[in-house]
Structures are given as C-alpha cells and as structure tokens.
C-alpha cells in the first residue's frame, strides 16, 4: 500500500491544475454563457468585454487559451489576436464569429489563429477545441 500512496498524492496535484481561458466578447449574455460552460467543465475563466480590457489586464498570469469574438467595437478579434502575437503571447486563440465570410479563416491564420468557430457554438465542440488547442500548445512548447 505504501507504494501506491505517492502515486495517489501525485495525481490530484496534476488534476487540480485547471487551465485558464480568457474569453473576450462584447455581448454580456455570451460572456456569461461561456463562463458558465467553461467553469462547469473545469476551466478557470476570466472574461473581458472588449480588446482594450484584455490588453489592460494582460500583465496578469497568461491564459492557456483565448476565446475571442471576431466582431467587436474598437478592435476586432483578428486584430486582437495579432496584437497578442506582437506582445509575444503564444497561447492558442480560438476565434468565434456569428458573421462568417469567405476570407475570415485566411485573415485569422495570418494573425496566428488556428481555429475559427461559428456561433451559435456547439458546447462540446468548443470544449474539445479548447482542450485540443491547449494540449497542442503544451506539446509544442516541450519540443522547443
């Protein structure tokens, strides 16, 4: 029994390290819904109503993943993703939009965004995409 005890103690430490997701959307209802969804699934969540609010708070511990709305006043989600990259923030960005157009994926990719999802979001799809993006990011940083 003594040999299994250290393993049991090690597992809760790893399980308790909850990934942090920063969500940026100008719609308070969407922010609340995404916060509830992600917290229910075990993420730590910080929400921001616009790009400026996120950029002002970016000195806080970095996010493991960003979920950013495309169409927002002031600065759109693609421009915000590009700004994060210029600040050398390499955490994955998932762009969400209710206004798809033919060039959005190419513009998003140019700003370092690998994933674009359409609203309304399918809950399981977003959770899977966030977990996959975080895992890919962590795996990539171990290789470097």
Task: Give an overview in words.
The protein has 144 residues and is of the alpha/beta class. It has a single domain (18-143), classed as Rossmann fold, CATH 3.40.50. The protein is built from six helices and five strands. Strands 2-1-3-4-5 form a five-stranded parallel beta sheet, sandwiched between helices. Strand 4, helix 5 and strand 5 form a beta-alpha-beta unit. The longest helix is centred in the C-terminal third of the chain and has 21 residues, at 123-143.
Quick tags:
144 residues; Rossmann fold; five-stranded parallel sheet; 49% helix; globular; disordered N terminus
Computed over alpha carbons, the radius of gyration is 16 Å
Might you state the CATH topology name? Rossmann fold
Taking all residues together, what is the mean pLDDT?
85
In oligomeric terms, what are we looking at?
single chain
- CATH class membership: Alpha Beta
Number of helices: 6
Global geometry:
globular
Q: In CATH, what is the homologous superfamily?
A: Response regulator
The description of the largest β-sheet is: 5 strands, parallel
Number of strands: 5
Helix-strand topology string: HEHEHEHEHEH
The percent range for helix content is 40-55%
Which percent range describes the beta-strand content? Answer: 15-25%
Widest sheet: strand ordering: 2-1-3-4-5
Number of domains: 1
């Amino acid at each position: 029994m003594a040999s299994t005890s250290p393993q049991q103690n090690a597992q809760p430490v790893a399980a308790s390290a909850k990934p942090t997701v920063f969500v940026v959307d100008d719609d308070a209802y969407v922010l609340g819904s995404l916060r509830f969804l992600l917290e229910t699934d075990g993420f730590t969540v910080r929400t921001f109503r616009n790009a400026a609010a996120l950029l002002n708070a970016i000195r806080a511990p970095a996010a493991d993943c960003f979920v950013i709305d495309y169409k927002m006043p002031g600065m759109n989600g693609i421009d915000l993703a590009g700004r994060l990259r210029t600040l050398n923030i390499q955490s994955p960005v998932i762009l969400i939009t209710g206004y798809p157009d033919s060039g959005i994926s190419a513009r998003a990719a140019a700003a370092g965004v690998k994933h674009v999802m359409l609203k309304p979001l399918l809950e399981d799809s977003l959770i899977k995409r966030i977990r996959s993006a975080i895992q890919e990011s962590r795996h990539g940083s171990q290789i470097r």
